[in-house]
Design goal:
By secondary structure, the protein is of the alpha/beta class. Helix content is 30%, strand content 19%. Bound molecules: flavin-adenine dinucleotide.
Length: 462
């Protein structure tokens, strides 16, 4: 990339949200997509289970909405849920048109009352979708991709975001879309690739945009004990069972993830029994287990929870607009309120498709950047093993005031913000479990919004 670049729309991040936004915006405008690592190093490539959409003969978007809202424990924003579930069938049709070949039939996952999960290549869904989107992006005459280029700070002129400073120079754009993914790799046990450390949230915060719900982090119950490799919920949907040290089942395997994760954490060990599953349906997953030294046909696999999906993010409206004009966010880095306090399985790839498209359509209406931009502080803080272990210990699956207060002095600013949110949520709700406040509190049935250095403010979103 040259030193100075001026696309109409700048998309920061090349996961499924960023790629969707880029293809949508490029129907009418020039687009530059940045990815700080290689294109295949994103959560999107790692996604196994699938995409939820009410397309089965016995299904309806209203049922999908009801399941999403039930999982969200009183915090889902109803308007965002409606957009998500109503647009889902059309977004799946878009993917088919672009060339994604989905498997026959629909899968079932925890919390879904119908079979509504579309898969590709068994447990290879994210990669299959991302590869098709990358191919369409690369052949598009109005899209440029800068791989290995990291956004370091956002530029702001006259109260509007006008682009970004990157490791390869400055970019001025009419609309800037953050699609930088989540921050679950800040925890030492994680299912996420290393780069998922919340860059987009810090970029937005430093430029003055609001963040919310940073304390809401989903821990996946069944990650391989050795390295956090995910053993998808789809396996439990296909009949895999969880066994304790005595070989007995101890939980409804399709209960919400937070329930299953805490049931596992309460035991000295847990194993996922895949022997009754049609293993040939999951070739990539089985091959990975075999490479790790396990024989899934012969022995149950040792699993324990790991940080997996971050619900918190940059506050946006239903068109991806952040509180800073000209700045948009979509996908896991955004907080639309759609997931409430507990994300329903396979709703996050869907979120990337629905809100990535919406953000791009809205960003096209932004005016040309004018005025002299000031640049926020650049991202320089390292994510060290010590920091990641501290987060795992003090803001893990089960949290308490003493540990969270320790994190307020952490060297990484996003970790301090997470601790601030988790301390303010003096209740247990969905994925957030406080040992010192084990019950839900009606007074906290809202989103905790962080602006600058102020204390979190509770907001209710309709
Ligand atoms: C193992 C695993 C399995 C999953 N399975 C499923 C599933 O079956 N179904 C489902 O719905 N969800 C699943 N999820 C969640 C889902 O994959 C993610 O929520 C989703 O892919 C996020 O997509 P995204 O586009 O928002 O971000 P990502 O795919 O994470 O992409 C982020 C992009 O931003 C770039 N980036 C970050 N910071 C910067 C910066 N400063 N400058 C430039 N570029 C930057 C990265 O390089 C990357 O290209 C799974 C997640 C994991 C980890």
């Amino acid at each position: 990339m040259s030193q100075k670049h001026q696309p109409d729309v700048l998309v920061i991040g090349a996961g499924i949200a960023g790629l969707t936004a880029a293809l949508t915006a490029a129907e009418h405008a020039s687009v530059l997509v940045l990815a700080k690592d290689s294109l295949d190093s994103s959560n999107s490539y790692a996604a196994q289970g699938g995409v939820a959409a009410a397309i089965g003969p016995d299904d309806d978007p209203a049922l999908h909405a009801a399941d999403t809202i039930a999982a969200g424990r009183g915090l889902c924003r109803p308007s965002a849920v409606a957009a998500l579930v109503e647009e889902a069938p059309a977004r799946i049709a878009d993917l088919r048109r672009l060339g994604v070949a989905f498997d026959e039939g629909l899968g079932r996952e925890g919390g879904h009352s119908r079979n509504r999960i579309v898969h590709a290549g068994g447990a290879d869904t994210g990669r299959r979708i991302a590869e098709v989107l990358v191919a369409r992006v690369r052949e598009h005459p109005r899209i440029r991709v800068a791989e290995g280029t990291r956004a370091l700070a956002l530029a702001v002129a006259d109260g509007r975001c006008t682009g970004a400073v990157t490791t390869a120079g400055t970019v001025a754009a009419r609309g800037t879309i953050l699609a930088t993914g989540g921050y679950a790799a800040l925890w030492s046990r994680t299912t996420n690739p290393n780069g998922a450390v919340g860059d987009g949230l810090l970029l937005a915060h430093r430029a003055g945009a609001a963040l919310a719900d940073l304390e809401l982090v989903q821990f996946h119950p069944t990650a391989l004990v050795d390295d956090g490799f995910l053993l998808s919920e789809a396996l439990r949907g296909a009949g895999a069972t969880l066994l304790d040290a005595d070989g007995r089942r101890f939980v409804d395997e399709l209960a919400p993830r937070d329930v299953v994760a805490r049931a596992i954490a309460a035991r000295s060990e847990a194993r996922l029994d895949l022997r009754s599953v049609e293993r040939e349906r999951y070739p990539t997953l089985m091959a990975t287990l075999e490479r790790a030294g396990y024989d899934p046909a012969d022995e149950p696999i040792p699993v324990s929870p790991a940080a997996h999906y971050t619900i918190g993010g940059v506050v946006t409206d239903l068109d991806g607009r952040s509180s800073l004009p000209g700045l948009y966010a979509a996908g896991e880095c955004a907080c639309t309120g759609v997931h409430g306090a507990n994300r329903l399985a396979s709703n996050s790839l869907l979120e990337c498709l629905v809100f990535g498209r919406r953000a791009a359509l809205a960003a096209l209406a932004e005016p040309e950047p004018v005025g002299k931009a000031s640049v926020a502080d650049e991202l320089v803080e390292p994510v060290t093993p010590v920091l990641r272990q501290a987060l795992w210990r003090d803001a893990g699956l089960i949290r308490g005031a003493a540990g969270l207060e320790r994190l307020l002095a952490a060297p990484h600013p996003l970790v301090r913000l997470i601790a601030k949110g988790a301390l303010a949520r003096t209740e247990s709700r969905g994925v957030h479990f406080r040992e010192d406040f084990p019950a839900e509190s009606d007074a906290l049935a809202g989103h905790l919004v962080l602006r600058g250095d102020a204390e979190p403010e509770l907001e209710r979103w309709s």
